[in-house]
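worker-03 picked up job from queue 'complexes'. Input manifest follows; two sequence lines, order preserved.
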Amino acid sequence: MINEQYKSMLGAKSVIRELSEYATARGKEVGYENVFDFSLGNPSVEVPKEFTDEMIRLLQEEDTMTLHGYTPSLGNPLYKEEIAKSLNERFGMNYGPEHIFPTTGAAGAVAHAVRAVTRPGDEMIAFAPYFPEYGPYITGAGCKLSVVPADTSSFQINFDKFLEMINENVAAVLVNTPNNPSGIAYSTATLQRLADILREKSKEYGHNIFLISDEPYREIVFKGADSPYVSKFYDHTLSCYSFSKSLSLPGERIGYVAVNPACEGADIIVPMCGQISRGTGHNCPPSIIQQAVAKVCSLTADLSVYETNMNIIYDTLVELGFTVVKPGGTFYIMPKALEEDSVAFCKKALKYDLVFVPADGFGAPGFFRMAYCIDTEKVERAMVALKKFVKEEYGK
Amino acid sequence: MINEQYKSMLGAKSVIRELSEYATARGKEVGYENVFDFSLGNPSVEVPKEFTDEMIRLLQEEDTMTLHGYTPSLGNPLYKEEIAKSLNERFGMNYGPEHIFPTTGAAGAVAHAVRAVTRPGDEMIAFAPYFPEYGPYITGAGCKLSVVPADTSSFQINFDKFLEMINENVAAVLVNTPNNPSGIAYSTATLQRLADILREKSKEYGHNIFLISDEPYREIVFKGADSPYVSKFYDHTLSCYSFSKSLSLPGERIGYVAVNPACEGADIIVPMCGQISRGTGHNCPPSIIQQAVAKVCSLTADLSVYETNMNIIYDTLVELGFTVVKPGGTFYIMPKALEEDSVAFCKKALKYDLVFVPADGFGAPGFFRMAYCIDTEKVERAMVALKKFVKEEYGK
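worker-03 finished. Artifact:
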C-alpha cells in the first residue's frame, strides 16, 4: 500500500519554495531583474576554471571504462587522500584516507553520520536557528530531534538552555557553523565551552556524546571572523562537508564525512557508512566528479562577492534601525522583523518586490532570512527598495 | 553510541569481493591477463562517444552556474521528459515527465520504490535467484523479504511456490529481468501469469500488490530472446532502471524510477520519492550527468560482445556436460557446479586461475555465476583452462 507517512509529507509545502515560485512568477511580469529575490541559497559565483579544465581533461584523456567505472564502495582512493591531505594542511589535523567517506553532498554526509552514531530511539540535539532539513535526516534515522532555543542576542549557543536539555539519551549533538540561516560563525569560546560540556556529560553518562558538524559554509568566512575548525575542539567529531558552496557545485552533490582520527570507532565508522549506504541506495557519489574534485579540493570559487554584499546589506539594516547580528560568513543574514509577526512582515515586503524568508521555520520566530548570493548591483538596487518599504510601511 | 546494527554488518565479507581481491592479488603474481576473472559485473565496453561529446560540450558552452546548479528536487525537467519519450516510443507506454524520478542508479531507484509502496512491517517477495543487495534495500525500509525458491529447470518463476507463499501482508513483489545472476529473461508467458496472479490476489486481499521491476540489464538482450517490458503487463508497476550497463556508466550512478501512469498513486509517487530522499540524504543525481544522459538516453554502448562471449561460454559448457540454461540477456550465466558443493567447486577452479562465484548467496545453491564482461580473446583462453579443470578434477 502507498506509504501514508511519505504521502502525508506532501501537504507541507516549503515556504522557501513558495516564495521562490512567487518571485519567478513576478519576474515574468515585471522582469526578473526587478524582483529582489533573497529567498534561495543558490551560489552565484562562477565554478573555478580548474574544475572545468580537469573535467574536460578526464573526458578527453582517460579510458572511459576506468573513468566512469564503479568506484570502490568506500570511495575513490585519490579523492579520499587529497581531502585528508588538504584538511591536515589547513587545519592541523591528521586524517588518513580511511577517515574520509565520500557522499552525495552534505545531506548525504549528515544522513550517514547520524545513522552511524545513533540508534533508533536515541535523542539528538541541535541549536536554533537551524536548517529545517535536519528534521527529516534525524527522524529518518529513527531518532528524536530536540532543538535548543536561540540566544537571539548573538546567535552563538544558548548554553543555559542546552544544559537544561542535555540528558543521557542524547547520542549526538549537531552544529552548523558558519550557520544557515543566521550567518554567524561559532567562536573559539563557544566551541571550547561546547566541547567541555560534551566531555563532562559523556563522562557522567558513561558513553561518548558524538558531535556532528555540518559545515558546507566553512570556506565562506568574512574578515575578522573567528571561525575555527570544529573537530579541533572535540575528538568524537564527524565533520560533514559539501563542495556546493566553496566550488559553486550544488547540483553535483559532492561532499564527505571526515571522522576525527581520535573519535570512538574512528577505524570502523567509514566502513559502517558503506553499510548504511546499502540500505538507503546511496552508493558513492559520481566517479568523474570525485576524480575532478580530488584535483581542486583546496581551491575555492571567488567568494568575495558574498562579503561585499553582506557589508552593503548590514550597513543599510543598521542605518534603518534593524536589530541584526553581523554575519561571520555564509551568504545569509537574519535580521529581526519590524513587527512581531515575521510572516506578515515578509508579506508586506513582497509589495516592494523584496522576497525575504520568515525564519520561524528555522527556529527563530520574529526574524527573517536574506540569502544574498546575487549580483552586487542588484543588492544595491534592493537597498533602495528596502528603504522605501521601511519608510512607507513602518515610518522609519 | 556507535550503531551496533551497522557495526555487526562489517563482519560479513562479500564472497564476490573476496574472490575479486584474490584475482587481483593473483594477477600481480602471474600477470592479470592470465587470471580468468569472471567474478565482477563491471561493464567492459566503451562509453558511447555521444555521451563524452555532450559532457564536453556542456562544460565548454554552458554557464557554469546553471550547469552545476541545484536541479529541481524532483529532477532535471529535460532528463525526465527525454526518458518518458524514449520509453513511450520503444515500449508503447504513455509516461509523462511527472512519472519519472531520477535516482543515483538502480540501487537508489529500488530503495525509493520500496519505501513508496510499503510500510514498515510489510512483506515483500522476490524470486530466486536474486541480487543479494535486495536484502539491505528491503530491510532498510523496515520490511521483511521472502524469497521464492528457484525453478532450477528454467529459472523462470516458480509459480507453485509463489502461490504457496503469497499472502495478504505482501505489499509488493520484486522482479529482476533480465536476471542477475542467471542471465534469464522472463518470458511473455511468465509475466502474463505473474500479472494475472497479482490482479487476482490484489482483489482477494482488498489492496493492490505493487510490482517493482529492477531492470538495469533491459538493453542487453540476445537474439531470439523473449524479453518484454514488464510494466506493459501490470498497471501497478514501478520500473527501476540504471544506465550503468546500457551506457557503461556504473560509477556515475544515474538511473530512475518510472511509475506506470495507471498505477495506484501514479500522481503522487514521484513527489513522495522526493520526500523519501529527504530522510535518506539521497537528493538528485548529479546535474551535469542528468543533462548529458538526457541527450543520449535512447542510445546504448556497443553491447554485442556480451552475446559473443555468452555463445562461446554456453557452447563450451554444454560440450563439457554442464547443466545450464541459455541466457536471454545480461552478461551473466549460471551453470550447475559439477559437485553438490559449489563453494568447493569454485575453490578448485581457482587452481586453474578461473574465478567463479558460488551462487548460494543468490539463492541458487549448487550453481555458480560467471560474469563475462571481459574481452572475447580472454574468454577463449579461459575455455581452454575450463576444459583442463573439468578433465583433471572431474574426469570429463
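worker-03 released lock.
The first helix of chain A runs from residue 4 to 8.
The CA atoms of residues 316 and 384 of chain A lie 9 Å apart.
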